[in-house]
Amino acid sequence: MPVLKADFEACQGYGNCITGAPDAYDIDDDGVVVLLKQEITDEERPRIEEAARSCPVSALTVEDS
Amino acid sequence: MSEPASSVRTVVVVGSSVGGVRTAQALRSEGFGGRVVLVGDEARLPYDKPPLSKQFLAGSWGTERVALLTEATADQAGIELRLGVAAERLDVAGRQVVLADGQRLDYDAVVIATGAAARPSPWAARSGVHVVRTMSDSESLQADLRRDDHVVVVGGGFIGAEVAATARSLGREVTVVDPLPVPIGRVVGAAVGSHFAELHRRHGVATRFGTGVESVEGEAGNLRVVLTDGTELTAGTVVVGIGATPNDGWLADSGLLVENGVVCDEFCRAVDAPAVHAVGDVARWFHPDRGEHIRVEHWTNAVDQAVCVAHNIAHPDDLRADRPVEYVWSDQYDWTIQIVGRPHRATEHHLVGDPAADRPRFAALYRGADGQLIAAVTVNWPKALVTCRRLVAAGSTFAAAVTQVEALAAAPARTAGAPA
């Protein structure tokens, strides 16, 4: 199954990922991304991959496990 | 593996900045199996523009850090790159993009993503006057900023304010000039905007707001800027950030309806040519929730539109309308500013937090005429921004939003006030 990865140091809290995939990404009180799940299905991959790509600092990726 | 729903075999994407690149990538995510060709007039590999007025200009990020696509990732995604050659014409009837070198690219669908160009300086000096739009612009300004002399920034909008902050961080003396008394007031309203003006002064940057520029003369290292009130400023470098205009001139004889951008329907298809799509700064599309055609020059808008257009090309029997809530960010000095919605339409606003505090964390919430939350501006507070972005999209009432954000402020934040 595809796996979600995040570079928590790079994250600046711009929040685009959450608009695109609120089931996969959230933000904590310090403004850093939170992964709501580790693995995703192939069906939801396009939408979540597009949300990951909307990160202005490229902090998010979807990788093959 | 071509999508059976789509008869499209070749998509030509014209424009290699973020809108074009993200469209090409999203076509693959959406399962499009045909040919994808990405055309760009710059010979450089695609790069991202927001850092060009900030980290890249400061020299803290190099070209690899701002890359949008490498040859390897393009190859992996099956994206053919045609860089260093501009699209010169669009032959809509013949379904061809005509390149400056005379080559013609056949397409079944074309995506216009040619962006916008910096409005050029109306004041002609011999040298030393810059705009910031491309990587070359940023590099040439960076070289001039190495000289320790006065920098005058004309235009107090996002680009101007970011360049002023970067120049200041490099130790330069900086003055920002803008004919408006509160430049960012156009976006966030005069009251909230005054805190942004104060931000410059707090960081030792002089402002001449409410004053225009009459002339700029001289050369790099020795420029004379005359203001409309008669004041003369000497400068080594002048930066002009006075807006952008859509790169739609190459479409003039295409027969497409072009009026301050390519006029599109709610699916981001050109109104009179459904095989033609547009994304980003060059697109003026019909926003269904607004009931009008709008053009938005924000990074996130281009990225969202790229996904929408890729989906609509790959799945023509499941067309998706593009109906985003505006979102833009700007990093100036030690403030990360995030804006959702359209604050200038508000009838009143409510502040949570103290903008005058040292490295503050605050939010301004904006009420629309019908009592809804229509916009929010946050500073150093991403959690509040994300909350407001959801509330604006959901059509929350202003009162409920204020309650929710005040509750957020009351919750103990572990490192409130620490750099993001």
Describe it for me?
- The complex is a heterodimer of chains A (65) and B (420).
- Chain A has 65 residues and is an alpha+beta fold.
- Chain A has a single domain (3-63), classed as Alpha-Beta Plaits, CATH 3.30.70.
- Chain A has helices at residues 16-20, 45-53; strands spanning 3-6, 25-27, 33-35, 60-63.
- In chain A, strand 2 and strand 3 form a beta hairpin.
- Chain A is globular and about 30 Å long.
- Chain A starts with a strand and ends with a strand.
- The model of chain A has no long low-confidence stretch (mean pLDDT 96).
- Helices cover 25% and strands 30% of the residues of chain B.
- Chain B has 3 domains: 10-117 and 245-314, FAD/NAD(P)-binding domain (3-Layer(bba) Sandwich); 120-242, FAD/NAD(P)-binding domain, CATH 3.50.50; 334-410, FAD/NAD-linked reductase, C-terminal dimerisation domain (Enolase-like, domain 1, 2-Layer Sandwich).
- Chain B has helices at residues 18-29, 55-58, 71-76, 135-145, 158-169, 185-188, 190-202, 299-314, 382-394, 398-410; strands at residues 10-14, 35-40, 79-83, 87-91, 96-99, 104-106, 109-112, 116-118, 129-130, 151-154, 174-178, 206-209, 213-219, 222-227, 232-235, 237-240, 244-246, 262-264, 269-270, 273-278, 283-287, 292-294, 327-332, 335-341, 348-352, 362-367, 373-379.
- Chain B has 10 helices and 27 strands.
- In chain B, helix 1 (18-29) packs parallel to helix 8 and helix 9 (382-394) runs antiparallel to helix 10.
- Chain B is α/β, with parallel strands linked by helices.
- Chain B is globular, with a radius of gyration of 22 Å.
- The interface between A and B is medium-sized, with 22 and 31 residues.
Write the layout of secondary structure elements.
The complex is a heterodimer of chains A (65) and B (420).
Chain A: E1 3-6, H1 16-20, E2 25-27, E3 33-35, H2 45-53, E4 60-63
Antiparallel strand pairs in A: 1-4, 2-3
Chain B: E1 10-14, H1 18-29, E2 35-40, H2 55-58, H3 71-76, E3 79-83, E4 87-91, E5 96-99, E6 104-106, E7 109-112, E8 116-118, E9 129-130, H4 135-145, E10 151-154, H5 158-169, E11 174-178, H6 185-188, H7 190-202, E12 206-209, E13 213-219, E14 222-227, E15 232-235, E16 237-240, E17 244-246, E18 262-264, E19 269-270, E20 273-278, E21 283-287, E22 292-294, H8 299-314, E23 327-332, E24 335-341, E25 348-352, E26 362-367, E27 373-379, H9 382-394, H10 398-410
Parallel strand pairs in B: 1-2, 1-7, 2-3, 7-20, 9-16, 10-11, 10-16, 11-12, 18-21
Antiparallel strand pairs in B: 4-5, 5-6, 8-17, 13-14, 14-15, 19-20, 21-22, 23-24, 24-27, 25-26, 26-27
Helix pairs in contact in B: 1-8, 9-10
